[in-house]
């Protein structure tokens, strides 16, 4: 007899979707998420294209669905360490890293007030700071603080423990492990931004005013490091001229071969962020092909109507910095005009490629992977990839694949 | 007005065979045009050459001056996201120019493939065997090793090489004329206030060739810069030595001065010869190593590359060995190796207009012409 | 039902206790609400706090619990005491203490008054208690649904959906109007790659799929069958289908709409030579030619040695199809290979605007472009004309080659786009009062798509889930996933109906609108305004509710002028009483103004929470009530507020317009209309219409909240107090 429970690895949008869709059919589902919160990448975005609606709206609905559904159980700061068994009957070992903050936490923020240590916020891609104890973000689910083990001074400091009136902080918390029995597994481990420091000719990670698209997303987000104000990291200046460099690492055999699917649309969306804040700002998008499939075309048309947004066919292959002004010199060939040009910008955004977040060999499940690390099989084992673990996708298609994966997982456990 | 296109698929295959095998992989992002430090602002290269090549647009490509502006540093291929190897395509186009520009065309064909290498070898081999047969009846002469005993300077070597030189010069006059005409056909015409060609040529030699500054612009490939520089100056040194020796020889003949070869080891000219030889060898080592270590994803070495490197190696090795054997008094070896030396020198110079070494002339002329018409890199 | 016993539990942690005059609070609540139990706890969400409540539930018989503490969005699990105990959360932390800005009013002389913060907390607690009192235990509607899923369309999507549902254990009826299954896939010579490494076109695998479907004992295949009518509601549809002359009625639970696409009408592409030049064909026609092994010029049967593919033949063109058809670039790459396959000297040209091979499909582009006989360039088509000798001349401008080009080819292939079958034909044939078609398809260029990025299957007609190319132009690989997704949603719909629960977005909600028909005046507002077409009506106009079509937004309740419609835990009278529970100071100089703020639960309410967490402060005059959707706002609530002396009503709801964010489609828009409509009656009563305003707010606009509220209050202050105050 099959175990009818389903394990979902990854609590990003795909994982949450897969879990809820299965749970609302009636199955018990476990979500295992390695970050301290559910929501994944979309929680870092300001808006979705093409509707320009906040992702947190959909997350809120899904969190409400989780709250109302006792069949969904979620573990944050958790990782699958070992999987054994067969379809219909898997034994899964889960390791939970210490959060040092227990469920007593009321998010009252008193601990943060006393914490003496600051850290770079990974959520904000190192553009902002948090204390060593921090609220993951304002839509964090669960709404519970967390301590960064790497920087916290531990029991030697313990100021937070003292400040907390609710005994929510346990600096002695240890890693723990437990076992789950499930019938099927959905892998929704998602994506991470490509390491831009490999884009040496574009100044990735080297030149302060060369940002990644995800960094811009955080800059524009109302809960970002600047409360949503788009400004230059080097000097806080309001950018007047901004360039977008498409295919930064994608469609490139020196980096990642595939097209990252969403970057054209993301940059078009970013134009709306910039143009909304700075009605006089000029934007140039340097592209190879503008990829706005399906109805996304309507969005492309809308942006093309903006006369302050210029689209130039030709990839940027060199960016240099004027170290005194912090301005950037971008070189590209305007192919349709047949001219190689250098143009100066205040800020450059690299439309960076997404890559699978699981490393090639550091993943507990042995699944067929392509050369870039995307999962390309597993069905015969009753294991189903969903969302960007499978291939680069937009949010809507991720949700489709996640819903489909839920069906496949249910079929496996009902067999 | 639109141009009717009939893509020449045969031409595409020729380019692929001549070293541009990946040209179809290009998806026109223009990374190459940006990365290239030599590429000009207006109609930069090599992005446009890539699409012309993909579309088999032979007319455009054979008249294209830009293939000569490229110094083949390979940076464009390093950064090419598709592995289309633009630098290989431009090299292939130059190879095709070596093949087709000069007359007789049959030599171009023989120079284009390893299959014809025996013919190219046999011509000088027989020629110098005839000389040997005529001088000593194919025997090794006794006594002090003096190569002119077997290969008499006056009677054979000089006439042969003088004829070769005249042949090469006339060949180049013809092909350079064709090349300049083709540039004009492509619309590259000097304006009225352009400098004269010779003035441009002088400036190019002074500013670019002697300094090798264009090689230096390719920052990522310093090995190539050094290698090419050493080979270049090695050749310049050896040219000076040869010119000196030839002049002195004839001066001696006419009784103006007293001169005899071999020169003593301490003779400054001899020292120059040896230093130049060593520079050549070191340069060759650099270049050969670079070619061997080339990442096949970035560049593929063509037969033209290997022919030139191989022949220069052969010239250098036989030259040095001949000298060593002579000093070691190993007569048989010395004469045989010297014979091979003459054969390889012939292979280097007599076929020069059809070999990669022809870039010495074509690129120099093209650079001078480019300077004349004001076609320069974005940053110049 | 046993006696109702209400317990009030006030948390004093998280700065609540420090800032309140607790005596003034408890004394007031005791007097006004007389709860059976009232307790304070310094840390109510702790285990001890929850235990304390449980003790009262068990010992004292408390069955209605008002938690006066933090937002209901947190600690929801701590305060869950099982289905027999109703819990109401009075959000006095985020909405009161944390966001409180002291208005600096004079010390109240009236003994019934208190400091502004304590008054605010009292109002919230009292509203919570009132709400509890007015809440009934939710009662589920009993149903015995049909568990059969009908799949409309037998193409790749339909076949996959049918198989997906059947393999999960559900009965499936697959309805296909043609005589064979397989749709376009069955007519293809090759299909673009669906598997890693995505570099080679594949032989179509739809044959296997058809065999599996036809051999499946849970799938009933009806070919050559046309849908006539879908009557009823999810779980109990009566579907009429017609095969030949024979009609039959099927009992169906839910529907997967997979009727796919048809090619754009190429006769409208005369400017590209179609219909004028024989050797101009469409990509669909070329596919058939390739399948039949006849790659010949239509004009004279000569073999095709050269072909030009014109991308975006109609697509990306406002005159024809404004959207991109997503798959034509891949399709032309594939078909260019057909031209090259048999003849190594053949040439294929592809003229594109942008080469769109997103994601992993880039691999296929890379592979195909490497063919020396395939020539690609970005370009704009200038002219397609005859060139004699059967050749067609294609002239293009704006190319990558630096000049305008022309090529003479044997065949021109127009890469035409997909048109969803539903665009101009009501394929669904719903027997609903609000029409037989899915509404507002023009928002999606005629596709049966979802308006929600997060929720691709959030349908306007519950129980009907679209998948494949009728929903979006998509590749076969994507369609397979999409089919599985839609199959799951159709299953989930049935399972939810089985349990008597709502589906997304209020999934799991056991309540549903109940109609007290005695008072109904047949005004038809509820039937017309329901965004989901849940209500039919009889000849007289009396509404006929269909609970399983309903999504529980309460739009009908908001529309009804007669209070006919209510939920067990949500009704017009409940909100009226809650509004009545707010203590309105008779003198605004002494107690400040009172503003009622009705907020959408999903977006505006969380935004308030986050605004408070981010330490934003705003006027202490406002009292917030979270509601299901602004669509449920009944104008009586406005009347009630005004008659109770409130100085204004502010409504915070979702953005509306084409990119509406309301998950109940038109809720906030409808509400806005209603508010416009009551402006005049208000003016007639000498009340400024501007006292009632609606603002659109997204969940992430939390930092704008203080300004919205303060601006509103400033405006109200300009009008002065409500003239009916104190009456």
Write the layout of secondary structure elements.
The complex is a heterotrimer of chains A (415), B (380) and C (727).
Chain A: E1 6-9, H1 13-23, E2 29-32, H2 55-68, E3 72-75, E4 78-86, E5 89-96, H3 110-114, E6 118-120, E7 129-131, E8 133-134, E9 146-147, H4 159-163, E10 176-182, E11 184-187, E12 191-193, E13 210-212, H5 213-220, E14 241-248, H6 263-277, E15 282-287, H7 296-304, E16 309-313, E17 316-321, E18 328-334, E19 339-345, E20 347-352, E21 354-356, E22 383-385, H8 395-414
Parallel strand pairs in A: 1-2, 1-11, 2-3, 11-22, 13-20, 14-15, 14-20, 15-16
Antiparallel strand pairs in A: 4-5, 5-10, 6-7, 8-9, 12-21, 17-18, 18-19
Chain B: E1 3-4, H1 9-20, H2 31-35, H3 47-54, H4 58-62, H5 66-69, H6 75-79, H7 86-101, H8 105-110, H9 117-136, H10 147-150, H11 153-185, H12 197-209, H13 213-217, H14 222-253, H15 268-293, H16 303-327, H17 331-349, H18 359-373
Chain C: E1 6-11, H1 16-19, H2 22-33, E2 37-41, H3 47-60, E3 64-69, E4 86-91, H4 93-97, H5 116-134, E5 148-152, H6 156-167, E6 171-175, H7 206-214, E7 219-222, E8 225-231, E9 237-243, E10 246-252, E11 254-257, E12 261-263, E13 280-282, H8 283-291, E14 306-310, H9 328-342, E15 347-352, H10 362-369, E16 374-378, E17 380-386, E18 392-397, E19 405-409, E20 411-414, E21 418-420, E22 464-466, H11 476-499, E23 514-515, H12 525-529, E24 535-537, E25 543-545, H13 555-559, E26 565-566, H14 572-580, H15 588-591, E27 595-600, H16 604-613, E28 622-627, H17 635-643, E29 648-653, H18 667-684, E30 692-696, H19 705-719
Parallel strand pairs in C: 1-2, 1-3, 3-4, 5-6, 5-11, 6-7, 11-22, 13-20, 14-15, 14-20, 15-16, 27-28, 27-29, 29-30
Antiparallel strand pairs in C: 8-9, 9-10, 12-21, 17-18, 18-19, 23-26, 24-25
Helix pairs in contact in C: 2-5, 5-14, 6-7, 6-11, 8-9, 9-10, 14-17
